[in-house]
Design goal:
The complex is a heterodimer of chains A (152) and B (274). Chain A is an alpha+beta fold and 152 residues long. Helices cover 32% and strands 15% of the residues of chain A. Chain A has 2 domains: 74 residues, Roll (Ubiquitin-like (UB roll)); 64 residues, [2Fe-2S]-binding domain (DNA polymerase, domain 1). In chain A, helix 2 packs across helix 5. Chain A starts with a strand and ends with a helix. A 5-stranded antiparallel beta sheet of chain B has the order 4-5-10-6-7, sandwiched between helices. Classes of the chains: A alpha+beta (152), B alpha+beta (274). The interface between A and B is medium-sized, with 32 and 28 residues.
Chain lengths: 152, 274
């Protein structure tokens, strides 16, 4: 089936099987491999991208469902080589260890602040409930999000 | 993991969706947010031959004040239920419970109608709407009919929906200031409840429903009867599992679930009565 998805501001077109997952479209058809596949069962959040500006788990969305939408992956955050403030905050606050969960964490965190620009620490922790860090590096991830929100 | 191959159809109206499901019959499934169905398909526990994508039927996404009740379009996302000012005012238990479904990413996609039609006894919203005395409106080839939530759930992932019917609207009676509580006991924030309780109370009236205490959501009518006849919360909550037949799994034995149900019903009623 032919689909059109705007990915990171660029119009893309694909001819995919209906069962193709959005994460596979992004990684394999477009070669944007920053978005990771973790649990593959919509639990871990490593595959989180933005669909029309909201965080979603791209392992549990068909590419055909995303036809006509706008998708942002972590590759689409920087502008002219300058990192997004959330990426900068993760770097400054050591918000990552092995890095595998990081693309999904960053995308979930940006969506969180889009909905609640001034969260408490508890709200950040609850707001990231859909993202797992197997390094258990949650403390600095939460600090990174608070820093990006200007609360640190 | 990817699902087994299937044909993909897209419906732009409820009538078109019903026409398509009538054409393809038992081999077809409706696809809304997909957050119950697609995981099952990826695990090959479900392999429908045809998916009928109904998520673009935008006129089935709404939350309206309809006088004595709130009417919610079946394709309204959990996120929109959670943040609805109309629901926060008139059915705050439902808005609150919607915020416990999955996680933010899942709530951005999953729909209230999808969750109810999936009829998973471990899901939050079937039990919550059951406690609230909801009515479900379904549409089929011969028109619409209304089903009381208390008559809807027939077995594990089985409902009163016929193969060619689609859930289109959920009607929630206004809570009119009733006290309420939603209790969800689980090990990780995003998990299904090991046991959950949705409860409201207004004078001698109450509604209490249990999550994951049977192969369907359970209306704990003995608890409400005990309260209505003047029983204490402590006594009423001892009847929490009277209508339930819980089973054991990796998370809990049936005995433990029964214990949890009594504890959580007591907590819920104390909060709802405060």
């Amino acid at each position: 089936m032919k689909i059109k998805i705007t990915v990171n501001g660029t119009d893309t077109q694909g001819d995919v099987e209906p069962r193709t997952l959005l994460v596979n479209y992004v990684r394999e058809h477009l070669g944007l491999t920053a978005t990771n596949i973790g649990c593959d069962t919509s639990s871990c959040g490593a595959c989180t991208v933005h669909l029309n500006g909201e965080s979603v788990k791209s392992c549990t969305i068909l590419a055909v469902q995303a036809d006509g939408t706008s998708v942002t992956t972590v590759e689409g955050l920087a502008t002219n080589g300058v990192m997004h403030p959330m990426q900068e905050a993760f770097m400054q606050n050591h918000g990552l260890q092995c890095g595998y969960c990081t693309p999904g964490m960053v995308m979930a965190a940006i969506s969180l602040l889009n909905e609640n620009a001034n969260p408490t620490e508890q709200e950040v922790r609850i707001g990231l409930e859909g993202n797992l860090c197997r390094c258990t590096g949650y403390h600095n991830i939460v600090q990174s999000v608070l820093a990006c929100a200007g609360k640190k | 993991m990817i699902p087994a191959p299937f044909d993909y159809k897209r419906a732009s109206s409820a009538a078109e969706a019903i026409s398509l499901i009538s054409e393809y019959g038992e081999d077809a499934k409706f696809l809304a947010g997909g957050h119950s169905l697609l995981p099952l398909m990826k695990l090959r526990l479900a392999s429908p031959a045809v998916l009928i994508d109904i998520a673009r039927i935008t006129d089935l996404s709404y939350i309206k004040d309809a006088g004595d009740h709130i009417a919610i379009g079946a394709l309204t996302r959990h996120h929109d239920v959670e943040y609805s000012s109309v629901l926060k005012q008139h059915a705050p238990l439902l808005a609150h419970a919607a915020g416990f479904v999955g996680d933010p990413q899942i709530r951005h996609r999953g729909t209230i109608g999808g969750s109810i039609a999936h009829a998973d006894p471990a899901s939050d919203l079937p039990a919550t709407t059951l406690a609230l005395g909801a009515t479900y409106v379904v549409q089929g080839p011969n028109g619409t009919r209304e089903i009381a939530a208390s008559n809807f759930y027939k077995g594990f992932l089985e409902s009163d929906l016929a193969a060619d019917e689609m859930l289109t609207e959920i009607r929630i009676p206004k809570m009119n200031g009733a006290g309420w509580s939603f209790q969800k006991f689980n090990r990780r924030a995003q998990d299904w409840a090991i046991v959950g309780v949705a409860a409201w109370r207004r004078g001698s009236e109450s509604g209490v429903a249990l999550v994951n205490m049977d192969n369907t959501p359970v209306l704990a009518t003995s608890v409400s009867a005990a309260l209505a006849s003047g029983g204490s919360i402590a006594d009423a909550s001892q009847k929490a599992a009277a209508e339930a037949r819980p089973s054991g799994d990796n998370n809990a034995t049936a005995e433990y679930r029964t214990h949890l149900a009594k504890v959580l019903v007591r907590r819920a009623l104390e909060t709802a009565s405060a």
